[in-house]
Amino acid sequence: MAEDHGSSRHMSASQKELGDEDARVVRVADAARTNERLDLAGNAVRTAKYSPLTFLPRNLFEQFHRLAYVYFLVIAVLNQLPQLAVFGRGASVMPLAFVLLVTAVKDAYEDWRRHRSDRAENGRLAAVLSPGGGGAQFVPTEWKHVRVGDVVRVVSDESLPADMVLLATSEPTGVAYVQTLNLDGESNLKTRYAKQETLSTPPERLAGAVIRSERPNRNIYGFQANLELEGETRRIPLGPSNIVLRGCELKNTAWAVGVVVYAGRETKAMLNNAGAPKKRSRLETHMNRETLFLSAILVVLCSIVAALSGVWLHTHEEGLELAQFFHKKDYLRRDKDNDYRNYNYYGIAAQIVFIYLMAVIVFQIMIPISLYISMELVRLGQAYFMIRDTRLYDESSNSRFQCRALNINEDLGQIKCIFSDKTGTLTQNKMEFRCASVDGIDYSDIARQRPPEGDRIWEPKISVNTDPELVKLIRDGADTEQGTQTREFFVALATCNTIVPMIADGLDPKKKVIDYQGESPDEQALVSAAAAYGFVLVERTSGHIVIDVLGEKLRYDVLGLHEFDSDRKRMSVIIGCPDKSVKLFVKGADSSMFGVIDKTVNSDVVQSTEKHLHSYSSLGLRTLVIGMRELSQEEFQEWQMAYEKASTALLGRGNQLRNVAANIETNLRLLGATGIDDKLQDGVPEAIEKLREAGIKVWVLTGDKQETAISIGYSCKLLTRDMTQIVINSRSRDSCRKSLEDAIAMVNKYQSFSTDPQLRVPLALIIDGNSLVYIFDTDWEEKLFEIAIACDVVLCCRVAPLQKAGIVDLIKKRTSDMTLAIGDGANDVSMIQMADVGIGISGQEGRQAVMASDFAMGQFRFLVPLLLVHGHWNYQRMAYMILYNFYRNATFVFVLFWYVLYTGFTLTTAITEWSSVLYSVIYTAVPTIVVAILDKDLSRRTLLKYPQLYGPGQREENYNLRLFIFIMIDSVWQSLACFFIPYLAYRKSVIDGSSLGDLWTLSVVILVNIHLAMDVIRWNWITHVAIWGSIAATWICVMIIDSIPIMPGFWAIYKVMGTGLFWALLLAVTVVGMIPHFAAKAFSEYFIPSDIQIAREMKSQDFHDVTRPEVQMSTDNIKWTREFGKFLPLSLSQDAAGQHNIILHNINLGECCQCQPRWS
Amino acid sequence: MDSHAAGSSSGGSGDGAAQPRRNSRKPKYSKFTQQELPACKPILTPKWVISVFVLVGVIFVPIGIVSLRASQQVVEIVDRYDDACVPAGVTDKLAYIRNDSIPKACTRNLTITKDMKQPIFVYYQLDNFYQNHRRYVKSRNDGQLRDKSKASKTDNCDPEAKTVDGKPIVPCGLIAWSLFNDTYNLIRNNETLSVDKKGISWKSDRDHKFGSDVLPMNFQKGPLQGGKILDSKIPLSEQEDLIVWMRTAALPTFRKLYGRIYVDLKENDTITVQLENNYNTYSFSGKKKLVLSTATWIGGKNDFLGLAYLTVGGICFFLAFAFTLLYLIKPRKMGDNSYLSWNRATLGR
Which of A313, A314, A320, A324 has the most B C-beta neighbours within 10 Å, making it the best mutation to test the interface with B? Predict the structure, then answer.
């Protein structure tokens, strides 16, 4: 955790140092002067996108970013040209207008809600120092009028109106507690300090002071500025601990006064408000490919019509002048030469062009416009069901599933690779102090007890079980060397941290409950442990801390604190002890600590501690090493000078501080080590097993060390005994290259041995951050990729946040595999945004990951129902809906096309223009949406029982070019049936265009709805209503259109429905159209059944589980692995020197017993 | 997995039950939100497939037989007269038809091939006349036809919207302009058969689409006469030939009802038709035919429907047979999990 958190902070820390030229100058309590020169944002915020005036243009502009809409706009415009007017004005604009209107209404509603919340937010009141009149006083002012430079007073439980530098607080020490729940979701209190220099001055007397701060940025963990008081030349440095941010709440502090440095949209909270980047679903990308095919078909159809019309005009040219139906000349008007003018005729070439464009207009719905809006509605429905799923609700954090991105639901059904963070995602991030190695003695495996009740005054909120032996040693062994060491160890635990104790009255009036608030759960665990052993941290101010040591309150002065950073991987404090000695306490990761520990002092302790550390981490514990040094007076003074210089430096302060820290953190004496247990979340091993059975590769990316990572890997069943591990942990570029090459050789060897997938040896790649640095620096990515895809499991340890994104990118760039990243912390943000699907765990580590994610949920194990059930459904539904929409519109267009061939290629439609327009909007839209939201190909239980059923999504079996071609062939056949059966029956009859058009309208609608009905798997009442209702609605619409006397087709439907032929044809069309689809479906389902089909049959026949035992398979594998092991050249040939590049652990069952973790 | 999920969630709710949360955000359970609505899940079992095909066959074959018989009961006499009615020796048919000074009377003799029961429908049939041509089919104004006050509204009627001096034409547009104007006079044994021309149009059209107070105005006043000239004293709602003509045909070869004969015709009766061959179809090589036909429930003579039904029924019987055979040759146990791909792979080893 320490690593994870620290590195995230490191990542986000502003790298540039503060220079004068680009600083923002804030004059304290003088907002007028502050604002006069610079263009600073006011405090009014505006999250709404539109104003009533700009709504129409902006919203339309945004909507027309969709290329399809532009296409339909162009067609609507084309249709307005008199020569091309195929449809009436209303009918041509309606479909586009409808789609635009629906979206606009949705946008307007959302924006109205944002406006409302903006108004509420801007209208809140804050107490602003007003310099006017007799003596300054705080006047309530609306938030939107607060300006940079204003001095604002905030009382307890009030929200902060802007980002402010603290000037003074109600606490004499200048401390203020803030809750950053709204900002990063962390509910614990953060401490912020006012500077000693401003603490005692009344705020009105501070006027004239100047703050120079960095420009607004979105880094909520970083701030750099300095304060220059009036009449002083010294600049007081200001850092992140001196600023309180907008959106936070003041807690446990009566009041605080601060000066506004960033306001409104320049506050860090607002700058961080940018939503997640827009992602596009895989299916939608593929859909574009098929849309292109459809465009090609459209072009072909139009070309055929245009060409044939040219031929027709040419062959009939002579007769056109007198043919009554063509009337080429306008006999009522003459031109200059006294000839009759051509009427609406511009020569064959022009006629061909016009016919072509008219054909585009008539056949436009080949590209389904309603598909886009249908998809949005379907995703909304799917999201509704995911959010409402009680199985995705997490009781412990009271959080529902969240759909933050609404356009990638179906991607959940196609995931091939999961990248998971470990801490907080696989594990609970609730740290528990488990082991301690003090002075070379291990206190871990001894029966622990609850600490004795009774005489204790201080009761830590997190209770820690204690080791009685250790307790006894502390109590009684004050005089022994060992006892002193042990005491120092616990003093170190209690002091070397940034924890703030919050004291509250307990149930028992004599007792006080201490809640340790801090940013790192590891530190909370350590301080709680120290408290349990009698070293209770009871008070912390910026200058000192008070520790209750075995009942005696001692004051320790905090002389300096070097914060954790991911380069040093350690933190240290310099403490002035009650006995006037000055001590340096350091704690950090073992890799960094053993570099600064003086191994000559007590080498046996060092050795045994190292051994303990190894065993701790192989148990999956997070380890920290504690060291200390007593500083001499000279040393201390030297350090103090350097420290002060560095901490007030304007340029390169961060680096200077780091150097100061590195200089002092040397020659440490080893005190001991701690092992903290990071408990697995519920159901993680089972979930990982299911996911792997589903054919999803799981990669774990963690900041933990290799041993910890591997043991967690075992405990969550990521690594299994039959796996062959490839370990790459190189410390130099060359060895890294060699490791990679060896690993490739290994992988190839394995693959060549096993062509049969059933005989494959599962491989696991374990690689550390250092090696990754080398790999990403050079062009060996390709090699790493080759290895990685051959492995079933990849475990990356010691990786930095940006490396996580790099690894995701490695896979995304080179394969078409769908990736999913899941994490909970700020350090996972980059990875979550990089992956195709990003999932945030709404848990302990704040909300940054959730904010960046596409979906958020409470537990890792929810991935299983999410992917295997909802993902499967979403994908299957959406895939079918897209195909169906293509088919549905194509069928209609083909029917129109066949008719055009019998109208002299002039694009007359027997089907009324209103039916053409309503076809994809009303006649057939609802059933497909309902089916795409409600239909389930398999039940939840079956999907969870056979995770392999996830495969069809990964293999894109529900949507591919083959299916597209099949359904298009079906579409052509059905259109042929639909057109030619009535055509042949009505040839040489008195049938009029409108009656035949109505018959075609109804039969095509019935056909496509029956087609859908045939593919529906689960019929519930809503499906019935939608499908049959849709046919009825079409009938009603056709009747309504035919009841308008000024329509040419007046009364046609009533007339034609009175004839027996009509009904006979309707039946014939439906049956003939459906026979191929039905026969093909019956054939393929029975003779070439898909897994889904079989599973469905099993479900329906209620076959009770005779699954072949999976165990049999894996034992086969193990047997085989053992034999295979003999051939391994590198097997178990571990290099004792430690500088091994590749270790091949061919772990058999027997060997594994020793590393069997103790999870029980 | 299910058992696991149940176990862990019950474990979790155990804590929850002990101290119930005040505002739990747990979604409320309902069959709808959990997607567990009762549903029917049909599966295409062999039984179903075969029964569907047999059922379709059983329904289709009888319908096919019935319609085929109905079609064969229809007696239809078709006489093409466009060529025959041009006097021999006329080479330029177009000039002939356009010359108003030449009388266009023509006589044709038809022999009744089979007894025809009344009512007998008299149709004229035009071939290659694109009444569905876009230029043509749009050239009308329906508002003008039913409402006297809208007589001047001639939108969409170009090029037959207004006369040369700008007066609105009623009825305007190409369709009305090109009204068919051949006339037939049927004579049997020197006795004129009365052709009833009342009620040949749709009642709905007469009542609602064509106004009873709308009289033709400025009709056929242009330099080119398209067809029949309407009697300007008779309102449109009674001009049934116009009403029939303006129900534009769906296909380029079509029939229009000319009238009905309420007399039975006997086999071998000879009908003499005195016709006036006025209508110009020679410019586009269109054909004109006179049709006498009886009718049944499927309309006129058309074997297609019966044949189609018989064919489809036959195919369905064949498919039923083929599927039965396939199911017998290559049976598969439904829902046998050994067919699952991952199990099949293990078995194959």
Answer: A324
